[in-house]
Amino acid sequence: MTYDPDIHHRQSLRWNKHNYSSPGFYYVTICIQDHRSLLGNVQSGVMNLNDAGEMVDAAWLRIPMQFPTIQLDEHITMPNHFHGIIQIVGRETVGVPPVGTQRSAMPAGRAGTRPAPTLGSAMPTYRAPTRGAPTLGDVVGGFKSQTTDEYIVGVDQVDWPRFQKHFWQRNYYDHVIRDHDELEKIRDYIRKNPLRWTLDRYNPENPALVMDDTGALVPWDES
């Protein structure tokens, strides 16, 4: 299937019959609740992470430390959402290179190398499940849980903006990457995401956004 960002961002394409612990490449998009821009800003096509955005970026890069069967590919932390490619390799990797330098058998995209910010000694640490092979949901759930806890520490210690009920939206968007061509298209889409921010469906200044019943700005659903 040809990758179509408009389709793949409109709804989850989670297959009911797909084994999400099976080896392969998976593309995920995770959105901040109400699409609030809590992670930084885009200027002249360049994403500028604030401290919270640095925290989210660093938490993503720690995933292979918590899940040895996971390798990371291209990713981008945007002002109010996150795109990333996860590879499940199906076995614990031996001699894994340092976080941020991992590469798969396919030519991989770039990965950041930002260190995790230190907010205090009480920084919570997520523990990966120890039974069975981790699923994509385990990995994304762990990432969301850890970053939510760390954001709360930032709210308490350095006055980051507060959020209502949830830091991330409860659901996330995923796509099982089927072949190398599709992988390259998604990598390219992720790399160029800041350049497209003015027209991004998650940009709160995009006139294509509409207000829902709660007063939150949401993407216009053309379906």
Properties at a glance:
single chain; Alpha-Beta Plaits; 4-stranded antiparallel beta sheet; 8 strands; 24% helix
How would you portray this structure in words?
This protein is an alpha+beta fold and 223 residues long. 24% of the residues lie in helices and 19% in strands. The protein has helices spanning 5-8, 51-61, 63-66, 136-158, 180-191, and strands spanning 24-31, 40-43, 46-49, 70-77, 81-88, 173-177, 209-211, 217-219. The strands form three sheets. The protein has a four-stranded antiparallel sheet, sandwiched between helices. Strands 2-3 form a two-stranded antiparallel sheet. A two-stranded antiparallel sheet has the order 7-8. A hairpin with a 5-residue loop joins strand 7 and strand 8 (217-219). Helix 2 (51-61) packs antiparallel against helix 4 (136-158).
Topology readout:
Elements: H1 5-8, E1 24-31, E2 40-43, E3 46-49, H2 51-61, H3 63-66, E4 70-77, E5 81-88, H4 136-158, E6 173-177, H5 180-191, E7 209-211, E8 217-219
Antiparallel strand pairs: 1-5, 1-6, 2-3, 4-5, 7-8
Helix pairs in contact: 2-4
Put the structure in a nutshell.
With 223 residues, the protein is of the alpha+beta class. It is built from five helices and eight strands.
Largest sheet: 4 strands, antiparallel
CATH superfamily caption:
Transposase IS200-like
Strand order of the largest sheet: 4-5-1-6
Average predicted local confidence, pLDDT: 78
Note the run of SSEs as H and E.
Answer: HEEEHHEEHEHEE
Radius of gyration: 17 Å
